[in-house]
Every structure is written in structure tokens, then in C-alpha cells.
Here is the input.
Amino acid sequence: MEVKKEEASLETLWEIIKILTGEHGCPWDKKQTPFTLKKYLVEEAYEAYEAIERGVPEEVREELGDLFFLLLFIIYLYEKEGAFTLKDLFYFTAQKMIRRHPHVFGEEVARTAEEVLKTWQKVKKKEGKSSSVLGNLPKSLPALQRAFRIGERAGRVGFDWKKAEDVFPKLEEELREVKEALSSNNKEQLKEEIGDLLFTVANLSRKMGINPEDALRASLDKFEERFKALEKEIEKRGLSWDELTIEDLDKIWEELKD
Here is the structure.
């Protein structure tokens, strides 16, 4: 099968999926169901996320292509089952977007992003969706990202600190409660207090205009890079982990940082 660039389209990908899952298609593709493919959604979405972060258009194109193909694959399987069609999906999504933008497609007025969010929430309530300003954030979201989004949504109705500095007393309070839970040797209480501390840190990060998920990812990348450099340095000096104390390791670590 040959695909010319000027002829490539959604229909082209749809036909490829049809062939892959057909009688003479790929054994792996033919075994897939929406349930078996769902785990790849998160993986592909994160690969696209990281490509966008790196800012290389060719990588973004490739990763978004992989994600889009996976979405089409899952839609195709549902259509094959008779659950819904691609046209159904396009139709209901278009209807929802028009309905939720009455300030664009209707008579309502929304001059700021904040007013748009209020309109969006009002329409969702009419639809019978969650009336909570917190909405229905997926529980499977990375916890720091979910903490960031929950704090952000609560802040829309004024349940928030005015500025980042106002979070510090709460941070100190949560840290003190972690120390108290540690001294009482209560594992469940300690788990709860550490969770509260992390949630407060996520909110502090948000008030500073930083996504805590991005901040932690950057720190992990930095730590990983430095730790691998530490491993190489230990090997280079002919040393072994067993003979080094934490003080020795800290000294080499600080040398590498310089």
C-alpha cells in the first residue's frame, strides 16, 4: 500500500486500521480491544506532552500522529462493535462545543477568560454534569497534577490564598503536623499528614505560576543525571558503594555539582 503525501487524510488512516484488523492483517492488531488499548493512551499522551515541551516540531508531529492513530484505532473498534460511529463522535463533540460556547455561537457575552469559565460551568450544570466547580478530574491523573488542578478550580470561586507568601504559614503548619505524626509512630496519620503537606506544596507552586508536576519532573531529571555522574565518578576512582559512607558520597556529590 502506497500513500502519497498530498492524498493522506483521516480516511487513509481509517483504511490502514481496517486492513490491520482485517482477515489478512496483523496478528497483534487483530487481538486488540478498547480495553487492551486504553493503557497506551496515557503513554502516548505523555510522549506527545514531552515532545511539545522539547519544542521540536518534527517530534511533536510524530507523537501527535501516534496518539491520533491510537484514538482512531479505538474509535474504529467501537464502530465495529456497533456502539457508535466516527460520525457520531464528530457530531456529538461539535454539538457540545457549540453548546458550551454560547458567547461565541449564541447570544451570551463573555469578555474575559474568567467569564468564559463561569459560562462553561453553567452550561455543564444544565447538561446534568457535576455542579461542583471541581468538576470530575480523573482520579488516575498524576497526584501532583490533580492537586494543581483541584487548587486551580477551587481558586476560581475565591477559595484560595491571595498570594504565594500567604501559603507559607500553612506549609509550616503541615510540616509541624508531619513531625508530630512521626513522633507518635502512627503510620496512617503520617500518610495523611504527608499528603496534606504535598497538597500544600502543590498549591504553593501553583500560586507561583509553576506547575508542580513540571517542577518535580525537572528535579527528577536533574537528580537522575547527577546520580549517574556520581556512579561514573565512583567507578573512575576505583571505589565501591560498600566502602563509602554517606558523608563520602555527599562530598563527591557536591564536587560534581561544582
Notes: The two ends are 56 Å apart (CA to CA). The chain has four domains: 5-97, 102-131, 143-210, 215-257. The chain has a mean pLDDT of 93. The first helix runs from residue 10 to 20.
